[in-house]
Amino acid sequence: KWQCNDLLQKGKSMKGKEGFTLLELITALSISAVIGVWAAGFFGGQLTIYRKHIQLSQAESLGDMAAFKITSSLEQAVSFKTDPEKEDVLYYLEGEEWKILTQEEIEETMDGDYEVKVDFSDTEPKNAAAEITILYKGEEIHTRKIELPAL
């Protein structure tokens, strides 16, 4: 009997001290909401910056690949010419034979939402000039210019 009375006494004394008041719960939830909104804004902004950085890095890499494709194709060229109506086509003389380099050949290295635009319009007979533009979902994000002298 003594044990039951002891437990009842403990239960009665703990009854007033259990749980939180409604005011305490509302205050805790309000503070949590403010911290959550701040954290979402902070990390959301950082995520946007990170994605832009990744897009730019990918575009620079694709620009490097396009430049490599152009330079490796033209390394033995002795003369260049362009078609005034087609900025994305370059004709080059290699040995005794005229060859052609097109934007489509360079685009083969692109993937996904990226595309390449090549402009050979500044090319002269002894100097090939290419402006390489990388677009992501139609938006220009990287441009690179290269010049190659003829042999």
What does this structure look like?
There is one protein chain. With 151 residues, this protein is an alpha+beta fold. The protein has helices at residues 2-15, 22-74, 103-107, and strands spanning 79-83, 86-94, 97-102, 114-119, 127-136, 139-149.
Comma- or semicolon-separated keywords:
151 residues, alpha+beta, three-stranded antiparallel sheet, 3 helices, 6 strands
Main β-sheet description: 3 strands, antiparallel
Q: Would you tell me the structural class of the helices and strands?
A: alpha+beta
Q: How would you name the oligomeric state of the polypeptide chains in this document?
A: single chain
Number of helices: 3
Give the fraction of residues assigned to helices. Answer: 40-55%
Distance N terminus to C terminus? Answer: 110 Å
Assess the beta-strand content as a share of residues. 25-35%
The best one-word shape is rod-shaped
User: Largest beta sheet: what is the strand line-up?
Assistant: 1-2-3
**Based on DSSP secondary structure assignment, what is the total number of beta strands?**
6
Order of helices and strands: HHEEEHEEE
Rg (CA only):
34 Å
What's the rounded overall pLDDT mean?
Answer: 85
Low-confidence stretches: none
Give a brief description:
With 151 residues, this protein is an alpha+beta fold.
Would you spell out the secondary-structure blueprint of this structure?
Layout: H1 2-15, H2 22-74, E1 79-83, E2 86-94, E3 97-102, H3 103-107, E4 114-119, E5 127-136, E6 139-149
